[in-house]
Amino acid sequence: MNGDRLTRLMGDVDDRFVEESMEVEGKKRRHWRWMGGLIAAAAVTLFAVTWDGFKEVIPLSDSSSNMSVAYIDEKDIDVGMSSANLIEMSEDELFSKWEPVVVRGVVKQIDHVELDFNGQAEYQSIVTIGVTDVYRGDIEPGSEVQVLTVAGVGSEVLQSEADVISELRLGMEGIFMPRRHDASHVWSQNGATLQVMDVTDYGFPDGERYMFLNADEGLVFSRDAYPSLRGAETLDDIEAFMMDRFR
Amino acid sequence: MDDQAIIDLYWSRSERAIEATAQKYGGYCHTISYNILHSREDADECVNDTYMKAWQTIPPTRPARLAAYLAKLVRNVALHKYEKVNAKKRGAGQVPLIVSELEHCLASSVATDSEVVELLNDFLVRLPQETRQIFMGRYFHFQSIKEIAKTRHVSESKVKMVLLRTRNDLKQVLEAEGVAL
Fold first, then answer.
1. Closest partner CB to B68 (pick from A7, A18, A161)
2. B137 found inside a domain
3. Could you report the predicted ipTM of this complex, rounded to two decimals?
4. Residue A111 domain boundaries
5. What confidence category does residue A128 fall into, taking pLDDT thresholds of 50, 70 and 90?
6. Considering its fold, how many domains does chain A have in total?
7. What is the pLDDT of residues A206-228, one digit of tens each?
8. What is the spatial distance between Cα B102 and Cα B97, in angstroms, rounded to a whole number?
9. Residue in chain A lying closest to B75 (CA)
10. How many other CB atoms are there within 10 angstroms of residue A51's CB atom?
11. Residue A23 belongs to a domain
């Protein structure tokens, strides 16, 4: 009976140990395979790429050290479940804290990258947005912006705190609020340092609150984060709000 | 939706709370429930019961970690169901194996449940992270050896060895604290 008791009591251990051991899905083993097709596709990206074995590597500046960033296939994304909670911010703080640009546009491309921090891998996605309208910021309509964000955008990979961006798909229209990376955006981990703007000029601070998506099932965004927009039903409703706020 | 927003929905008694919980943590809860019960129907039923328990307990509870809170709820609900279904026989799945593995760690004791849990927490915090995750995978989440090995990219023999050594260490800790008599 002591085994029964200990089994039961294991259910009362500290929450942090429970969260730490959570896995949304089993991690996938990496399968290296010929990726010649991907190389050709990458040649048209805005990044200059160099050939490193089976991966296309994004060149980094001297400000980054002990690490590499490489494009990978969607199937090679390998993430557990993040346990981090979003920092609570009011609607005004969401617009002011990072001073994000606010643009309307269409998702032109979704890429996935592996960030190798001195042997410790992290995964992110890069969303390329074709900008059609600008409500805030110095981006030109007709230009494209690349935005670094949580892993697995547009794929089956699950991440916590990324419910909205998990709905994002190629060709989808939306209103996006990426923040511009500058020299202060440094990601340090495992003795390695990434100057984030080496990878993209922009990033989403989280996968929930910085985009408004015109999905098949309707407008998708974090309604709880924007009390002024709770009644919004279309992207045009969001646009009217942004124009009123920023023009 | 972030956890705080989901908890706010519970506090405002919005039925969207359950919808949001199911969307974000339904799969996770089902996995724990299924690991214990090995029946999809029973696991579904337990997950639904878990949502109801969350609805009944939030408020007044405001969980600091919603995922862990739900994990503990569904674990308890599923174990109770398991005991009910298998009251007179040893059931299938991981539960009898896990109970058997832990049988010798804790002998008959006068220590209270809270005292034992406190010792478990002290023991877990001192483990290397990988060892702790393997131990929790097995004894909290009821994962099979094979599943842990696959998830963590290690061999099954390594998982078995880690679990054996950790159980032995736990037994020593409990004995040293006078819990195992």
1. A18
2. yes
3. 0.89
4. 30-246
5. very high
6. 1
7. 888 999 999 888 899 998 899 99
8. 9
9. A11
10. 9
11. no
